[in-house]
Amino acid sequence: MTSLAGVLPPVAIGARVLRSFGAIVVAAVALRLCVYAWMALPYGGLVKAMCNFDCGWYERIALSGYDADANWANLGSYPHWAFFPLYPLGVAALHQALEISARASGMLLSSLCLCGLAVLGARHLQSTRRYAHAVLWLIVLLLFPYSFLFSAVYTEALFAVLSAASLLALARRQVLLAAALAAFVSATRPTGVVLTVIISVDRLRALWRGRHRRDRVALLAQAALPVAVAPLGLFLYMLEQYIRIGDALAFSHVQMLWNRRWGDPFARIGSAMTTLDFGGLLMLPSHAYEASFAAVGLLGAAWLAYRRRGAEAAFLAGCILLPAATGVDSLPRFVSTNPVFLYLVYDLAAAALLPVARPMLLGGFAAVLAGLQALLLIGWYTGAGGVF
Predict the structure, then answer these.
(1) CB 301, CB 320: distance < 8 Å
(2) Is 47 a residue whose pLDDT tops 50?
């Protein structure tokens, strides 16, 4: 079994090898984009074909801020507040710096985040798993069916790389760094608040372990600071909403425009599963299909908890249950692009393939993933919204 240690050692003892791995990642992502561009030729080119669904919202916010579409229906720009600010800010910065279109800027930002996720994910696997195989991790990350969303004008790649970085820092006991990264995650998506809960629990455990220490005031400060830092991105966004429109929770209230209301996530998942509405899957939303991803993800989280990977389990479960509380829409992409879910897929693939150590099996696994991704990508290009 090949260890990642020979490919990606700690930076302190192998910075040159780390740079080499980074170069391989960049080349692989660039090659993947070339294939996407070739497949997009019948659909108006890559940049046009990749911009579907929520892409338009991020594009307009990046270009005109949250006042874009001020005359949209009778709601003005209110719906824009459903989309958190960090990603459109990044798109706007690249758009102005490079003088390329907002869509191209978004694809570039997402692809750069994907490169970072490849490296950070490999480091996380190396730090937390007995065996870490760089080639298998890249296959899972780049070829998993929904992973093309990591190159779309969506928050998937930014959310994943920041979350992976925060979880890696927490695994290495760099708690304040994990909290600072979590603050950026909470400015990217509402589910970023799950990291705040994880860090808070970690600090409470640290307080309990140190309950007999004499320097309890210092210990309390060490525990309180990360807890205060982690949700800062969300709090600043809430402050901006309050100042601008007088509603600090506009990002939540606006969800009613998409018929999303708070409820029991388990009841919603269970009810959706029983519909068995798989007919016309590509064109019409299938609640059973969407809920099945939530069920698989929650089973994976339970397995991670059993394996005593508490932070990973809590993050995956929280990122499923929080959106499921308002409905099962979009759960396939939320689950499939979650970095912890991809770690779980890697674990399963490693357990099945690495002991055999046959290149043909690894190639067959990659071919199956690539074929499924190609089908979904064509569905994305054609605007078939049933599976997204």
Answers:
(1) yes
(2) yes
